[in-house]
């Protein structure tokens, strides 16, 4: 083929059908931009954590235990650590801190450290070097904590039984190990000062950590793999420096995994638009292809022309998508509000660039390939005779099926790669990719309903004319409903889940719940505490014993500590069901928010019976009739599972996954947890102040404040999800425009025929407005009904949430969808009102 002919063809095709080129451009660029933006940001976070991990941890690795290191553990550390290693010990725990003068109190995360820590990075303080010069009777705290306590440098605070002088503000510090940062503002004291606080008896809620600096030539990941089992047997968990803040990393990973899958679903809708656009364009070009073939053009040459056109548009769209992806990375830090994420500079990584080529160029070509082959096999005489309704051959059908299966498989692989879990990627991909099929089922259901209403003459003739088009098999308009309905499903599901999460957080309580938690109550403090509570108007007060323990045996078979998941980022409830720490309790009665799902609740005379939360029993792989043995501070306590129960975790009572009846557990060393409801903020403040002043060891948590902190996190996550949902919605709207473009010939015929038989402009306007309204209505009904159904399943069987439907928000979405559909519909049809009927008939013949 001559290069000049190729240039002439491409220049003419790219600009003669600007609507086709623009739809193809938008479909690809939005999909590529959303996927690449999230993928690049995830890669940049990973690179930043790997680069700064040592500075963030302050060490090469850490050894952590829920109890004080035993002599055996200390010997193991000395014998197994690489030669030349340096050790810095620390203790971390939550506690209340109160001012010495005014008695103001607040929750703080206490770090008792040795001055040799950190080995990497530094504590930035005000005044400078306050950390390195810290003395045993002194304390450092975050500036925000000082502001909350209304305290100044040089004043004194009480931490437990210790009186400490505030000598500096913490501006920046190395991160925590194996926890979610930000549970409470940090305070720092010297390790040698911790015994003076009298708080170290709090048992399993304390974390003992040794930070390790190793010689530079040690492969620590290999060392961890080789020694993990023998250390975990002695309750020592090894954390590599890349696992710093593993809780935070898990949260970020799960959030961005979900966003990445939403972005992939936007790309999937874009791929449907690409397919529809190319198919429509090739059908329009059928006559032209036939003429070229009659003039002697080879099918291969035609293939090159069409592929070149798609390649150029895809390449331009990919470049635009990369720009969109870059801008998404600029926006994300403002959505998250994270100081750390704000330090990550937007960049398109090499891997992300390769992704953009795959998504933006290769996949559109794969989508187009069977269509191009079909066009290349066009018989000139049939095309010239304009026989457009011929059936596809079996070979072409198989090619189309193979292409669809291949694209689907590729989507599953992409989703699995993004989430680093084939199972997770497969499940999400099945849900998202199967969404159009599920929506299609609802579409058919509404179609049958419309048909029934029409037959019963319950629909006017004008609306009947429109409704019959919706259920017609050959109606291309159903693609609009399917695309828009799929997008509305994701949008409505997001709104309902958000409202349910708000209810869980307590921000929109249907019924008031306890809003004060009291932790670490000693047995000899209960009577005095009861006398304090009598001074206040308290409702819904609950008290429960709590005993720290570890699962030792299941049905007499010892639990292998060495089975603990090695990677801290993979330690969730499911993975650590048998190896995690437990808080056990015992009581005679169930709460009204609990329900036995299997077995029977015990009577008051029962001894050493066990109730397990039903979902957690699956993680434990246990059932009614089996036995569990727990190690309670060196003593084994065994009980028989007599029932499984469901728990409403949002009710703010002292709930536990494992509960005993009375028996051996009663004699174990324990402390108590109490929850209660105090309506007045002023009364809650006075209550907290009096309890902490009398019992400095008791931690008082005002959940109203916790709710506000949770809402801020929820707001940021919601904003990010809304960003991705916006891309999905935009992709769906483009799909609507694409389907309008694909059915324009059919619409021209209908428009011209209605005008020829005497339809006025007013009638035609009303007719197509009815069509637009019905599209919007059906799309919303399909998306909202399916989202409510899916939400109920998710809340009842997965998330354990109470479903709350935001009727006002859904009403706004409904009105917006109708208006947008009408505007887009009229935008696509507006030109037809200005074209004479004769000209329309000539264009469609």
TrEMBL record:
Residues 21-189 form the MacB-like periplasmic core domain. Residues 262-378, 725-828 form the ABC3 transporter permease C-terminal domain. It is a multi-pass membrane protein. It is found in: Cell membrane. The keyword Oxidoreductase does not apply. Coiled coil: none annotated. Keywords: Cell membrane, Membrane, Transmembrane, Transmembrane helix. GO terms for cellular component: plasma membrane. Pfam families: FtsX, MacB_PCD. This is FtsX-like permease family protein.
């Amino acid at each position: 083929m001559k290069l000049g002919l190729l240039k002439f063809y491409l220049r003419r095709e790219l600009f003669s059908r600007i609507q086709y080129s623009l739809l193809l451009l938008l479909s690809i660029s939005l999909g590529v931009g959303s996927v690449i933006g999230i993928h690049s940001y995830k890669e940049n976070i990973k690179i930043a954590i790997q680069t700064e991990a040592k500075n963030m941890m302050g060490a090469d690795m850490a050894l952590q235990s829920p109890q004080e290191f035993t002599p055996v553990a200390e010997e193991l550390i000395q014998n197994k650590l690489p030669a030349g290693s340096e050790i810095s010990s620390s203790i971390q725990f939550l506690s209340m801190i109160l001012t010495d003068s005014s008695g103001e109190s607040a929750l703080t995360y206490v770090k008792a450290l040795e001055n040799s820590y950190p080995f990497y990075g530094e504590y930035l303080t005000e005044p400078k070097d306050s950390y390195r010069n810290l003395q045993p009777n002194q304390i450092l705290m975050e500036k925000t904590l000082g502001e909350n306590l209304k305290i100044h440098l040089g004043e004194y605070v009480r931490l437990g039984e210790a009186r400490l002088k505030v000598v500096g503000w913490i501006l920046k510090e190395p991160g925590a190990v194996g926890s979610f940062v930000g549970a409470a503002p940090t305070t720092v004291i010297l390790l040698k000062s911790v015994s003076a606080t009298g708080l170290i008896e709090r048992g399993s809620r304390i974390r003992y950590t040794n930070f390790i600096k190793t010689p530079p030539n040690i492969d620590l990941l290999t060392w961890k793999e080789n020694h993990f089992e023998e250390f975990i047997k002695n309750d020592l968990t090894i954390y590599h420096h890349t696992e710093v803040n593993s809780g935070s990393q898990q949260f970020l990973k799960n959030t961005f995994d979900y966003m990445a899958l939403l972005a992939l679903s936007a790309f999937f809708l874009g791929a449907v638009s690409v397919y529809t656009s190319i198919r429509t364009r090739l059908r329009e070009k059928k006559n032209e292809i036939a003429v070229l073939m009659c003039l002697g053009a080879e099918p291969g040459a035609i293939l090159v022309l069409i592929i070149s056109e798609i390649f150029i548009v895809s390449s331009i769209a990919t470049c635009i998508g990369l720009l969109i992806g870059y801008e998404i990375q600029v926006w994300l830090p403002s959505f998250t509000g994270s100081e750390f994420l704000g330090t990550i500079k937007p960049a398109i990584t090499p891997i992300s660039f390769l992704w953009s080529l795959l998504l933006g160029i290769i996949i559109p070509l794969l989508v187009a390939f069977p269509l191009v082959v079909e066009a290349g096999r066009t018989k000139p005489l049939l095309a010239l005779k304009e026989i457009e309704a011929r059936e596809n051959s079996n070979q072409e059908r198989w090619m189309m099926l193979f292409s669809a299966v291949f694209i689907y498989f590729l989507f599953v692989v992409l989703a699995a790669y993004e989430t680093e879990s084939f199972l997770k990627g497969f499940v999400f991909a099945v849900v998202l990719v199967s969404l159009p099929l599920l929506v299609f089922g609802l579409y058919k259901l509404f179609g049958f309903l419309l048909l029934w209403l029409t037959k019963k003459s319950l629909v006017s003739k004008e609306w009947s004319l429109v409704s019959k088009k919706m259920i017609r098999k050959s109606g291309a308009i159903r693609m609009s409903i399917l695309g828009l309905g799929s997008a509305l499903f994701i949008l409505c599901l997001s709104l309902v889940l958000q409202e349910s999460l708000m209810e869980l957080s307590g921000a929109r309580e249907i019924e008031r719940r306890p809003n004060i938690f009291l932790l670490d109550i000693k047995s000899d403090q209960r009577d005095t505490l009861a006398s304090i509570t009598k001074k206040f108007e308290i409702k819904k007060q609950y008290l429960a014993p709590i005993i720290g323990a570890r699962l030792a045996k299941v049905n007499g078979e010892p639990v292998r500590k060495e089975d603990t998941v090695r990677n801290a980022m993979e330690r969730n409830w499911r993975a650590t069901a048998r190896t995690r720490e437990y808080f056990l309790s015992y009581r005679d009665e169930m709460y009204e928010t609990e329900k036995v799902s299997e077995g029977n609740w015990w009577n008051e005379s029962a001894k050493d019976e066990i109730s397990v939360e039903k979902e957690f029993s699956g993680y434990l792989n246990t059932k009614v009739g089996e036995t569990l043995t727990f190690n309670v501070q060196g003593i084994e306590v065994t009980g028989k599972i007599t029932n499984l129960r469901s728990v409403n975790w949002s009710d703010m009572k002292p709930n536990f996954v494992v509960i005993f009846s009375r028996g051996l557990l009663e004699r174990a060393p324990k402390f108590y947890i109490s929850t209660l409801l105090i309506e007045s903020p002023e009364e809650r403040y006075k209550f907290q102040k009096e309890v902490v002043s009398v019992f400095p060891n008791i931690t008082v948590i005002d959940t109203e404040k916790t709710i506000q902190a949770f809402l801020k996190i929820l707001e940021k996550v919601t904003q990010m999800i809304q960003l991705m949902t916006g891309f999905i919605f935009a992709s769906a709207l483009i799909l609507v425009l694409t389907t309008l473009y694909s059915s324009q010939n059919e619409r021209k015929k209908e428009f011209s025929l209605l005008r020829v038989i005497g339809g006025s402009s007013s009638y035609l306007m009303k007719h197509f407005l009815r069509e637009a309204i019905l599209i919007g209505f059906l799309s919303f009904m399909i998306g909202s009904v399916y989202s409510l159904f899916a939400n109920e399943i998710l809340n009842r069987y997965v998330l354990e949430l109470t479903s709350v439907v935001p009727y006002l928000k859904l009403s706004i979405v409904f009105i917006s969808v109708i208006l947008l559909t009408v505007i887009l519909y009229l935008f696509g049809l507006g030109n037809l009102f200005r074209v004479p009927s004769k000209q329309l008939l000539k264009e469609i013949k």
